[in-house]
Amino acid sequence: MPVFRFGTQMLVLLCSTLLVFFACTNDDTPKTSAPKDPLVMPADAEKAEFSVSDFNCWTELNMFIITGICNNESADWQRIWLRAVINDKDGKTLPFKGHPDVVFRAFSDAIPPRGRSAFMVALPLSNFGGVPDTCQISGAGAVDMSEGPVLVASDIGGARQLDPNTQTETGRKASVKISNPQPGRAVDNLKFEVLLYDQSNRLWMAQVVNPLDSNFIRNNQLVSDGIGPIPGAGSRTYGFNLVTQGLPAALQNGKLSRIDFIPFEARGK
Question: Mean per-residue pLDDT for 99-118?
Answer without folding.
Answer: 97
